[in-house]
Amino acid sequence: MFLENFFDINAIIYTYPLLLDGFLLTVKLVAVIVPAGIALGTILALIYALGGWFTKAGFILYVDTFRSLPPLVLLVFIFYGLPFLGIQLGSFASAVLALVLNGSSYYAEIVRAGIVAIPKGQWDAGRATGLTRFQTIVYIVLPQAVRNVVGPLLGNTLELTKATSICSVVALPEFLRTAQIAQSHVYNPTPLVFVALVYLILLWPLARLVSRLERGIATH
Amino acid sequence: MEQIQYYYFNLPIMRDALPTMLHGLGLTVLMALTTVAMGVGAGLLLAILRSYPSRWIRWPIICFVDVFRSLPQLVIIILIYFALPYAGIEFSPFWSTVLGLSLVLAAFAQESFWAGITATPRGQWEAATATGLSHTATVLFVILPPAIKTSIPSLTNRIIAVTKGTALGSAVAVQELLAHAQSIQSVVANPSPLTLGALLYMAIFAPMVAFSRWLEWRYRWSR
User: Which of A29, A197, B11, B91 is the Cys-Cys partner for A164 at CB 3.0 to 4.6 Å?
Assistant: First the structure.
């Protein structure tokens, strides 16, 4: 009875082409959103470190705004709200925009925290050898800063990967969405259980790694 | 410019939508508070249990934490709401969301508290045991108070991240803030209620984010 309902192999065999498409779309979303989020976040953190008080205030406004908005609210606004202005992005582009805005704010804050934690002497040493401020931050400060915040960066990547599941709400046929469609085809929750298991198997090692890195920082 | 004002900051529409949206906001706040109470409470309990030197206690807790750190929040909520009824277990949309988020918060809170507990110097344990305190008394009265203090910044960030997930309730038809904003938006054919919703979310979460920024700044300088 229990196995029939939650682990019905036939339900998976019947719906697997659909689930495979959904899985691949989730992978595609992650492959676009994570690098874009890291790149934008790093650029913002560099602007913060090099800029004056005005750019610093702008940075905090950007980061805190997108950290206070639930990503789903942002996504609904972009997907349902922007078309009124004639900006029709479609569900994939809307999802990418919403999650890059959300993800980049967290990445930016993490990289910023890493940069300000680097001792001032590193800046002075770089400048003393004749590097410009920009060269100093890119070649000397940033590499050390990133090494110190690898744990939080990976942690945010895990969160962002998981967050792609909210795109199911704007009818983007990613992994969770296809599981819901599959469930309605077979009148059985097995596809949902299957999708949860795949998420678990793929993300568990990353979650382990993140908690190991966080523990490492706490003890050293 | 006029178009932007008409579509996104339409004050008459916002005024009409406000009473309903405030109801939604009330439910959002209620969900958030219930989630924090259940999630942080369970996380603290798990962290205390994990300190007992028995693998039969430790391993199930580590498994629980890993599972709920790895699964997306929405997947957990959908499983509770759409899959559990097949096993005869039914939760309302409200409780499906709150339970799902509480499980996630419990896992993350456990990690925060546990990091605080393991950061306590060994000498504290030895000193407490030497004065004749039991394991339970040592954890509760000696180890936990400073450990909780250490864990506050990371815990605050987790609480913000998880309580923002209350918006996911709209996917299982909880009539919270986002759900109201969307339904009014489709009735009046104008997205101003979405702007209002976003502003109301920011009214709750922006102070919390600012608070966490202040906490991190303070903790850094107190060390």
Answer: A29
Closest chain A CA to residue B108: A211
User: Does the CA dihedral A181-A186-A188-A190 come out positive or negative?
Assistant: negative
Q: How many CA atoms lie within 13 A of B28 on its CB side?
A: 30
Token pair 């406004």 in the structure block, residue: A61
The whole-angstrom separation of Cα A63 and Cα B210 is 11
Q: What are phi and psi of A56, to 5 degrees?
A: -65, -45
User: The complex's ipTM?
Assistant: 0.91
Q: What is the CATH number that goes with domain B17-218?
A: 1.10.3720.10
CB B49 within 8 A of CB B117: no
| Cα dihedral A66→A67→A70→A75 (10° resolution) | 30
CB contact under 8 A, A180 and B82: yes
Runs of H (alpha helix) within chain B: 2-8, 11-50, 55-70, 73-78, 93-118, 122-130, 135-137, 144-163, 177-188, 192-222
Pick from A69, A88, A215 the residue to mutate for testing the B interface (most B CBs within 10 Å).
Answer: A69
pLDDT digits over A29-78, tens only? 999 999 999 999 999 999 999 999 999 999 999 999 999 999 999 999 99
The CATH class for the domain spanning A2-219 reads mainly alpha
User: What DSSP string runs through A29-77?
Assistant: HHHHHHHHHHHHHHHHHHHHHHS-HHHHHHHHHHHHHHHHS-HHHHHHI
Locate the domains of chain B by residue range.
Answer: 17-218
Instruction: Tell me the residue type at A96.
Output: V
Q: Give contacts of A 58-87 with B, CB under 8 A.
A: 60, 64-65, 67-74, 76-77, 80-81, 84-85
Search chain B and give the residue with CA nearest A205: B70
Q: Is the distance from CB of A195 to CB of A175 less than 8 angstroms?
A: yes
Is the full-model pTM beyond 0.95?
Answer: no
CA pair distance A42, A142, nearest whole angstrom = 9
Domain ranges of chain A: 2-219
What residues contact B6, with CB distance under 8 A and at least 6 apart? B190
- Angle subtended at Cα B199 by Cα B194 and Cα B100, rounded to the nearest 5 degrees: 80
